[in-house]
Amino acid sequence: MKLHHLLLAILITAIWGINFSVIKLGLSSVDPFVLAGIRFTLCALPALFFIPKPNVAWRYIISYGLIFGIGLWGVVNLGIKTGISAGIASLLLQFSAFFTILLGSMVFNERLTRYQIAGFLVACAGLMSIVFITDGSVTLSGMLLVLAGAIAWSIANIINKKSATTQVFSFLVWSSAFSPVPLFLLDWLLYGTSGYISLFNQMDTSAVLSILFQVYPNTLFGYWVWNSLLKQYPVSTVAPLSLLVPVFGILGSMMIFGEQISVVKILALLLIITGLAIGLYGHRLQRILLWRT
Fold this sequence. Notes:
Layout: H1 3-26, H2 32-44, H3 58-81, H4 86-92, H5 96-107, H6 114-130, H7 140-163, H8 168-176, H9 180-191, H10 194-202, H11 205-232, H12 235-238, H13 245-257, H14 263-292
Helix pairs in contact: 1-4, 1-11, 1-13, 2-3, 2-8, 2-9, 2-11, 3-7, 3-8, 4-13, 5-7, 6-14, 8-11
């Protein structure tokens, strides 16, 4: 990979990692589902009027928008709101890689390898260690909600693969149009009109910057660049860099919120990232080692 492309890829992982802290800033004055609803409204509009519909069936566009917008980011926002730190949220969401592998084995009859099973067990050890964090940065409800978001992300990945779309940016924009209304409705069902009243009364600079960051650098720019790199280079070259997301997520939470990094958190980070590396790239590493010997 060319150096400027490598630096660009690292920049995207940094944006995605820091985004968790940016979300938490927005949640200080905006309800979780309203924040996600505004985010996806701006992802769809006004781009929807200038970008042609992707050449895929409506069922893929609609289902992806609902799962990605509500099941992933609506639920993750709610998890962060319940008290889990931005750093831990960024770490737990990486379990989507394993959930995608498990779902793929059921939907596409893909056989699980010994590396995937071993990696999943190592990562689960990291997940279990998070339970022992007692500094107030972890809540059980937050953990469960973020893990539910990880499952939703894996379902979204399966929908994306089933659609076989090559128009990634167009697919993202058009699917985003189906997220806002259900998100706004969910907030009204859960909190009544209080979320909308506080939106107009308490909206501050932090919330506005949070929304703009989530829409443009994080979603539209980030996914566009990442998928452009995937078209230019092998997946095995680009995808491993995503392991940097939780690293930047924790660093961002340290800088913005002063999150304390304990030995248990470092252990959880190392175990989960090691598990991901084994599960996703173990067989490639074995081939490289065998080739060199």
